[in-house]
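By way of example, we now present a protein record of this kind:
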Amino acid sequence: MKNIFKFILVIALTAVSLNAKTIIVGSDAEYPPFDYINENGKIAGFDIDLINEISKIAGFEYKFTKIGFDALIPALKAGKIDAIAASMSATPERKKSVDFSDPYFFTKNLYLKLATNNSITNKEQLSKLKIGVMLGTVQEGVAHAIKGAKVIPTEGIAGSIMNLKAGKVDVVIVDSSVGFGYLKKNSDIISFLEESDGSDGFAFAFDKGKDSEFLAKFNAALKEVKENGTYDKLLIKYDLK
């Protein structure tokens, strides 16, 4: 009888431990307004606020850590982090390695050029040109698929925008939600093409097959955040509506 009691107690304590676990969330913090380093040197943005709201409902603690975008999935698979919140597109290729949450934002690929560049008007003209992208993104894959183009990736999208302004690249491909933000602040840059990114939208990522129960709870909380009006408030806060 005592052994049974001890077994039940161990199970209960294990459950409490799992529920009380602090989730380590990785983010590249290079993709405003979704994730970036604020004036206080902390990771901030739409993704971070959304995780915060989800945690209140799902009942978990969290801690963010900065990791380069292309290193996020390897870090997740190695157990260095428990989740990814980095405006990551849920692509078929990534789904082979991770479990994605339900999508929380949909976007497209946006092609940017200098406003003074009148020679580029369509995608067919990008062959043999220099294309700037953020390392590890869907847009990097799109750029590599353009025959003859020279792809110049940067750690953060800001670096690609700087390269465009400096004439080091002819075009930058970025997701539209981020790209439109740069267009609003940079009158010397314009867009000339918008197309589907071929994904199921932005989603949070977790190691594949590791915790389906937690993911179900996470998705339920995400749904509630969308339904109770909090999600729309965050869209307005970050000028994404």
